[in-house]
Amino acid sequence: MIPGNLSSLGTAVANHLWQSTLFALGTALITLLLRKNQARARFLLWLAASIKFLIPFSLLIELGGHLAALNHVSEMPVFYFVIAKVSQPFGQTSNLRGASASLLQFLPATLALLWMIGFVTVSVIYWSRWRRAAAAKRDALPVFDGREVEALRRLEPAAGIRRPIPLLSSRGSLEPGVFGIIYPVLLWPEKISQHLDDAHVEAILVHEIQHVRRRDNLAAAIHMLVETLFWFYPLVWWLGARMVEERERACDEAVLQLGNPPHVYAESILRTCKFSMSSPLACISGVTGGDLKRRIVRIMSPRAADRLGLVKKVLLTAIGIGAVAGPIFMGFVKAPVASAQSSSTKSNAQPVGTTPVPYAPNTKIYHVGRGVSAPTLIYAPNPQYTEKARKAKYQGVCVIALIVDAAGNPQRVLVVRHLGMGLDQKAVEAVKQYRFDPAMLNGKPVPVEVNIEVNFRVS
């Protein structure tokens, strides 16, 4: 059988990938709408889609749950269940028997082993490439004068660079590129200088200065982490290609905006490709990244990219805030209606209204934990206020103990923390209508005893 904790982990990963995919698709739609605007805006959007893979929405939902507990919120909008189903479509593994169950018991360990092999492989590849670039830096010599240094120092202030970028002359064949994240240096292959005119050198330096100003190496390193962790997911590699494409396009736009002739800039890139090798890693920003053919075509037929207007800036800001606030709001409205937890107060439970229907006495009742997952609330009508409590503006929390059976239905509904003014009965009536995805143990639904908080608050 599939162990409960591994099954829950697999479900969480599947939901996280689904949420990140939806986020990336939304990003793709926005970048399509901004295709005539500056590339730096699209690059930041792709970077946000990449970072989303490192931030599960479940963390933000948990934060919203804590906020709800602090504010004693009691109402849950009906549309919450639709949002929850869309954002978390994968539930617990269904009950499987016979040969399927025998095979599936090895699935979690097999998948974990495959992930580890891929993780180590990608890590080793990136590490070996990084060592190659680091070796080129160690063998490089600092340059303090010459036309490259003079041009670099003249161009830095215009880009807002306060700390001078060290220039190192490399004996290797790597293209000019920025190495380092916190303290970047510019590696310049000494053999390429004899093939470049002053205008070519200046165009390449402007390009590299833009990489430093924009901290492109840091952004690329973040996405390399995403690729290493989610190496099995093709979408992250596609995102990486989009980031490099928009990164280089943003630098190209900046070079042309600073007055460098398009034909000179295009020729400098082609000469660099002819006499040097491309950078081995995306986090070592060079001048030849991206689709060179498309870049040259755009450079030679320049069209001023539109700046983001006020409306688009406000819209993007609202979308960004919504992307963060949305999951927090989900947790905010989810937590107060049903906070399933293992029952710790059983002896003080007292029936309210009619005598409770006894659960089958020979049926084992479980508690959440030790491989038993919590039941998931899928339907919860709002409890009704009594007229007396409403007039008195009386509010508070009523705690209900119940058994969620293997079919997801409430059984033996009892009040363990009374609220009074007739609200206990209303809470019981509401909870009896709740429906759950049942708790799971080793892939099988099991009855579990839980407590549920029903909040009453006068709006």
Structure description:
- 51% of the residues lie in helices and 12% in strands.
- By secondary structure, it is an alpha+beta fold.
- The protein folds into three domains: 4-102 and 310-334, no CATH class; 117-290, no CATH class; 341-456, TolA/TonB C-terminal domain (2-Layer Sandwich), CATH 3.30.2420.10.
- The strands form four sheets. The protein has a four-stranded mixed sheet, sandwiched between helices.
- The radius of gyration is 30 Å and the shape is elongated.
- The model is unreliable at 1-6, 72-83, 92-99 and 335-358 (pLDDT under 50).
What is the structure about, briefly put?
The protein has 459 residues and is α+β, with helices and mostly antiparallel strands.
Key words describing this protein structure:
single chain, 459 residues, alpha+beta, TolA/TonB C-terminal domain, four-stranded mixed beta sheet, 15 helices, disordered N terminus
Helix content: 40-55%
Main structural class: alpha+beta
Count of folded domains: 3
Distance between the termini: 48 Å
Question: Which spans have pLDDT < 50 for at least 5 consecutive residues?
Answer: 1-6, 72-83, 92-99, 335-358
How can the largest sheet be summarized?
4 strands, mixed
Tally of individual helices: 15
Globally, the shape reads elongated
Radius of gyration using CA atoms only: 30 Å
Mean of residue pLDDT?
80
- Count of individual beta strands: 12
Strand residue percentage: 5-15%
